[in-house]
Every structure is written in C-alpha cells, then in structure tokens.
Design goal:
By secondary structure, the chain is of the alpha/beta class. The protein has twelve helices and 13 strands.
C-alpha cells in the first residue's frame, strides 16, 4: 500500500512538518510526496563571506530516504490508487472532487476564530468553546476524514476525529557548521518576520546592537515589511540574511546549533500565547538560550522552566512521538482503506 502525500501549493522540502511526516511514514509504507519545487534561496549581507559554500549546497538538498519518493512537479497530482494525506484546503478539495476520502495532516488556521474564541479565557469559557466546536464539527468534515493536528491550537480542528502531535524538535541534520568561524558568536532569528511574530522587537534589537553578529533566516510577506527590515539593517554592521519563501529546515537547525542565542520576540496574541512555538522545542533540545517576552504567556514560561535544564527530555524530540503516529496511521489505514 502506497501513501500519497499531497502538498499541492507547498514545497516538497517543507522546512519542518511535512517532510518530517513523510520520512516517518516511509519507515512503514512507501510514500510519494507531491508538491512544488523548492524556491530559490539567497544569501546577502556583510557576513556572507563566512558562509561555507560546500556545506550550504549540501544542506539545501533533500536527503535520500528509503521508501520515500519526492515529485516536485508543481502540478496537480494524478489520481492515486491508495490512501491520500492532504496538508491544505486545495489538496482536500482535489480529493473530494475525485470522490476520495483523505486523511488530513494540518491545523485549521482560522486566526479570526482564535480571536473570537480566545484559548486564554477562563475555564468556563473554554468549556463553552469546546461545545461550540463539537456542534460545528459534523458540518466541516467528510465521512471518513481524520485530522492529525500539529500545533497546540488543535482545538480548532473537528474535535471528535482528531489527534494532536506536538511540533517537536526534528533530528535531521548533522553537518559541519555553516558559519564555523562565527560559531557561538551570532544572534539568530528564524522563520517568518511579521508583526505578530515580533517585528517591532526584532527591529529594536537590530538597532540596539549594531556590532553584534546577527543572522536572519526567513522570509517576509510584503515589500513594505522588507523595506523596514532593510532600513534597520543599514544601521547594523555585521548581519547575514538567508532569504527564501521556505528556508530548508536543515539550514535552520545548523544555524541554531552554532548560534549564541535565539530570538523569539512573539507577541502575546490569542493564536500564539496558548501554544508552544517550535523555537521553544529547538532551543531547549539544543541547550541554547532563547530570548522571548517573559510573563506574558504562562504556557511559554511553564514550558521553558520545565525543559531548559533538561535538553535530553524525550518529549522534545520527534522520535519520541513518531511511534504513536505510526500506530495511529496503521489503525486509520486499516479502518478506511484495507477493509474496503
């Protein structure tokens, strides 16, 4: 039985979740990943000369995984004969169009609903919220769909038919340092740059420490945001920007292993303050300092207090959760496909 993983509009070497999912499933079943080719990545800044070119190119290439076939066509995948896993609404629509009943690995990223049903409300209000979503769940799922949610706001997915898998640290990279001559010296920010992810605090840090080596590995969503970042970087004398719509996760992890500190200036918005962002897993597992707003999210503070002294805690690593994923998938495939 071969599993088709449809990313459709997402890149086949997605920074973290999807490629990890495919590698895990390939340990038990053949897997085909259909998605977009990886977007180009660019490196710029005064620290560009410190980038090890040979290591850079190796980190950009998806690793060869037994049982895993990557198809970076960018087109609509053919109708599969076996199970489908979809990771976005377009993949879900295609599967319904062909009369297929997919499994869904995704979160229901309805940010407007996060603001309406704030997860940080009182316990009574949370109970009301659960009842509301339980009533709405039958309206939003097909008869045999099953949701595998990746983040802590998984309550926004249909409650009766879902599993939660944390955004745990991923063991995929063991290359030599990409910035070997700057190891332990640079401050790092990874991921998208936007207001809710701490744009203002990031710009303040850049201006406040103009001579400290700074590395930015991520993307911006608009030309206006990019212009603001570039204006701040003009006042900084030692920066490196690795730009891509998706910076491959091995590049990010390699940079994290060699950094002095990881910046996580998240804003305490409803869709953020009640979940554990991936940077927390990564910093705790690597044993590196993380700068984030203290005292604004009990969830963040509790997570960091628990794991900062124990980077070997198994909950931080995907290998700890992988066996449950395979067990759940085996049960679902038997229920939805093998008994047809």
């Amino acid at each position: 039985m071969q599993i088709a993983l449809w990313l459709v509009r997402e890149s086949v070497y997605h920074p973290r979740g999807y490629f990890r999912l495919a590698c895990s499933l390939a340990k038990r079943w053949p897997v085909e990943v259909w998605g977009q080719p990886m977007p180009p990545a660019a490196v710029e800044g005064p620290l560009e000369a410190y980038v090890e070119e040979e290591i850079w190119h190796r980190l950009l290439d998806p690793p060869v995984v037994p049982g895993l076939t990557v198809v970076p066509t960018g087109g609509i995948p053919p109708r599969p004969q076996g199970p489908i896993l979809v990771c976005n609404p377009m993949g879900l629509w295609l599967s319904w169009r062909w009369g297929q009943c997919p499994l869904v690995w995704d979160v229901w990223e309805a940010y407007h609903e996060n603001f309406r049903w704030d997860p940080a409300y009182t316990p009574f209000q949370r109970r009301v919220r659960r009842v509301v979503w339980a009533l709405l769940a039958p309206m939003r799922r097909c008869s045999q769909a099953y949701w595998l949610a990746e983040y802590a706001y998984a309550g926004l997915t249909p409650l009766a038919r879902s599993e939660f898998f944390p955004n745990a640290f991923v063991e995929v990279e063991s290359e030599k340092p990409l910035l070997s001559k700057l190891r332990g010296q640079y401050t790092l920010y990874t991921g998208n740059v936007a207001e809710s992810w701490g744009l203002e605090a990031l710009l303040e840090w850049i201006r406040a420490y103009p001579q400290q080596p700074f590395v930015l590995a991520g993307s911006v969503k608009s030309a206006a945001l990019e212009a603001r970042i570039r204006a701040a970087l003009k006042t900084h004398g030692a920066w490196l920007w690795i730009r891509s719509r998706f910076v491959p996760y091995p590049v990010i992890q390699n940079l994290q292993r060699g950094c002095k500190r990881l910046l996580a200036p998240y804003q305490p918005l409803p869709h953020l303050r009640n979940k554990w962002p991936g940077k927390f897993y990564e910093a705790a597992a690597l044993g590196i300092p993380i700068e984030y707003p203290r005292g604004v999210s009990p969830v963040w503070d509790a997570f960091w207090a628990r794991y900062r002294e124990d980077p070997h805690a198994p909950e931080l690593y995907w290998s700890y959760h992988e066996s449950r994923l395979l067990a759940v998938m085996e049960r679902l495939l038997e229920r939805f496909y093998e008994r047809r």
